[in-house]
Amino acid sequence: GLIVAVGSTVQDLDHVAHSFTEAHQVADAARGANTEKLYYELPDIQLRGLLYMLGDDPRLQSFVERTLGMLLEFDQRNQTDLVDSLRTFLLHGGNKSAAAEAAHVARQTFYRRLATVQRILSMDLESAEVRTSLHAAIMALESQRSTRRRAATQTSEVADAGGRGGLAGAEPAW
Predict the structure, then answer these.
(1) Residue 156 to residue 162: CA distance in whole angstroms
(2) What is the pTM assigned to this prediction?
(3) Among 54, 64, 79, 86, which one has the highest count of C-beta atoms within 10 angstroms of its own C-beta?
(4) Phi and psi of 95, rounded to 5°?
(5) Listed residue (138, 170, 162, 156) closest to 64, CA to CA
(6) At residue 167, does pLDDT exceed 60?
(7) Looking at the DSSP assignment, which residues form a beta bridge with residue 40?
């Protein structure tokens, strides 16, 4: 859906470009937020915003691979979506019943999925610190995927513009 994002208030034209850059970053980070607001500002994106800005940092990529790699490989190999089950569990504050309801599956089915996640990752999902790390890794993964999709879309738009004699090779305004 449509996301409206706001950058910092500026007092002079010299800072408008920076405010637009912030608004773009807020919009991209807000795409994965679990809220439905009319508009988003920098304070609304918190950790998600930081992870989005660090998305290309190899240390963050390493953290995601180290934290979720085994689960991502399992999902790919078995055509499952346990990462999404884990994400739902984390978005519901570790409340298994609420997460099962949100996932529209029977509680016992959801509990089995979480037991499989716990076995694959060798992590205790009851630990608040583990859940925080997993949630940060999932948010980072989402921001990396969002960045890749946006880059692919821009590449195809530039190629289309080039075919019409448009602005092939032009940099985006943000």
Answers:
(1) 10
(2) 0.69
(3) 86
(4) -85, 105
(5) 138
(6) no
(7) 5
Place of tokens 């490989």: 73
Averaged pLDDT score across all residues of the chain: 83
Listing DSSP states for the chain in one string gives ----B-----SSGGGHHHHHHHHHHHHHHHTT-S---S-B-HHHHHHHHHHHHTTT-HHHHHHHHHHHHHHHHHHHHHT--HHHHHHHHHHTTT-HHHHHHHHTS-HHHHHHHHHHHHHHHT--TT-HHHHHHHHHHHHHHHHHHHHHHHHHHHHHHHHHHHHTTS-TTPPP--
Check residue 106 and give its pLDDT: 97
